Amino acid sequence: MMDSLRLIGYAGYASFSSRSLQTNFCPPKAMSNFVSANKANTPTQNDCTNRNSCATVNVTRGELILEGRNLQEIPKETALAYGPTTKLLNLKENSIMNANNIDLFANLTTLILDKNDLTSLAFFPVMPSVKTLWFNNNRCSNLNAICQDLSRCFPNLEYLSMLNNPCCPAFYDDTILGADKYRRYRLLVSFHLKKLRFLDATPISQKERSEANSKGQFLGKTAKPTKKSSRPLSPGMSKEEQEYERQKQLKKLKAKRRASSSLLGIGNPEHRYDGKHSEGNRFITNNDL
Q1: What does the domain layout of the chain look like in residue ranges?
Q2: Distance separating alpha carbons of residues 261 and 149, to the nearest angstrom
Q3: Which residues contact 236 (CB under 8 A, 6 or more apart)?
Q4: Strands lying side by side in the sheet with 63-65
Q5: Per-residue pLDDT reduced to its tens digit, 112-152
Q6: In this structure, which of 105, 184, 233, 284 has its CB flanked by the most CB atoms within 10 Å?
């Protein structure tokens, strides 16, 4: 049962019961309707007129819950009222499209962005206080790009979960190829996030950290063959380089000769059979015709 109603912060109401301290935030327009609906000391409710801008706040734990409200950004009045004291911000199952007002959460340590259909975090500001990020069930397909975003936005990140993103291989795939993909994924993420301790609920081992430091810079790159023309031999080239260039040019010359030679002059275009000096009938007499 609700013992009392009290205004908190910028504009909101708090319901304090004997069992817990839980605050349900609504902007001023929705607050009056809620108060009139609870005059008879009814139990605390999370519903209000404009559900998209209502919030559930745990005063003692510093938790702000904005889950499942179809938000495209954090409401400004909510950020002003609870940003400075919020430690955990839950934005799960929304439609976040920008990072407006998130800079007001200066002391945030845990950010939950699950199920927001996000493909990137490029629009997020630098948040050095965040140490835990939940980024599951989004639509990020570019692992290199998201790793760069994470290292820029959350330089002190220690706990990260990105399960069920297109860029995240299935950790339960026990095939040789699947296991190798997930291993390379962990190494690349660990390379970009130097302070990361857990990835997808699995600790980063010392072996993974060492391998990530030595190989991580190469894992995000794909070697592409380039068409190079043979360069002239330079006096500044080493003997090995000069010999390599000679052999390469010799192979090209031989290949060109083979392509231009006739059937009876394979490999040497200077000795072609053209039939000018043919003596094919020299040993044929009239009786043989």
Answers
A1: 5-219, 225-275
A2: 58
A3: none
A4: 5-7, 13-16, 21-25, 55-58, 63-65, 88-90, 110-112, 132-134, 159-161, 198-199, 202-203
A5: 999 999 999 999 999 999 999 999 999 999 999 999 999 99
A6: 105
CATH topology of domain 5-219: 3.80.10
Tokens of 230: 């043979």
Pairing mode of beta strands 159-161, 132-134 = parallel
Between the two ends of the chain, the Cα-to-Cα distance in Å is 125
CB-CB contact of 252 with 229 (8 Å):
no
Residues in the chain: 289
Question: What is the reported pLDDT for 219?
Answer: 75
Burial state string for 139-177 with b = 16 or more CB within 10 A and e = fewer than 16: ebeebebbbebbbebbeebbbbbbbebebbbebeeeeee
Distance CA 143, CA 168 (A): 8
Residues of the chain with pLDDT under 50: 1-49, 223, 262-267
User: How far, in Å, CA of 86 to CA of 109, rounded?
Assistant: 8
Q: Which residue has the tokens 């490029």?
A: 122
d(CA 7, CA 17): 15
